[in-house]
Amino acid sequence: MGGLFALIYAAVRGRLGPDRQGPLALLVAGGLFVGAVLVPFLKYPANPPAVGDPDTIATRTILYLVMIAISLLAMLAAARIAQGAPGSPGWLKPLAGVGTFVMTVGVAFAVLPADGGAPDGFPPNLLWDFRLASLAVQLTLWSVIGSLFAVVVGGAREG
Questions:
Q1: What is the DSSP string of 125-148?
Q2: How many domains is the chain partitioned into structurally?
Q3: pTM to 2 decimals?
Q4: Is 54 helix (H, G, I), strand (E, B) or coil?
Q5: In this structure, are residues 28 and 99 in contact, taking their beta carbons and an 8 Å threshold?
Q6: Tens-of-pLDDT digits for all 159 residues of the chain?
Q7: Domain span including residue 137
């Protein structure tokens, strides 16, 4: 995950100006959390190990990876659109980017098949706790990566 973060950070570094490297690190980490974790989680939430039909593992994995790819590509398209044409009003650019992301992800949510969910009889509280814990772990991971990187690049700039 750190390598993915570093590659994307390196690709967009300098586009917000030299004094914006710390906030850029937080923005990249937040974007990766939303695009690679939160949006796919909303369509295909995590299940505890050994829950679900073992015959559908390959299909469920492929659908989850497709959702990650769609979400990240939609985020890239939204970022490009948010940069906008030179004559566009300033307020329209980010709005167009967000709209692009939401519409693309919305179409993917509608087109891709639904999650099979947990089998009947599985305790719903246990399932909910597992899903919240898995999301919290990912939020912690991306928060730490972005925050530590922001501190490092902020210190390197001042040092």
A1: HHHHHHHHHHHHHHHHHHHHHHHH
A2: 1
A3: 0.86
A4: helix
A5: no
A6: 888 899 989 888 876 656 678 888 999 999 999 999 999 999 999 887 777 677 778 888 899 999 999 999 999 999 888 877 677 787 788 898 899 999 999 999 999 998 877 777 788 888 889 999 999 999 999 999 999 999 998 766 554
A7: 2-158
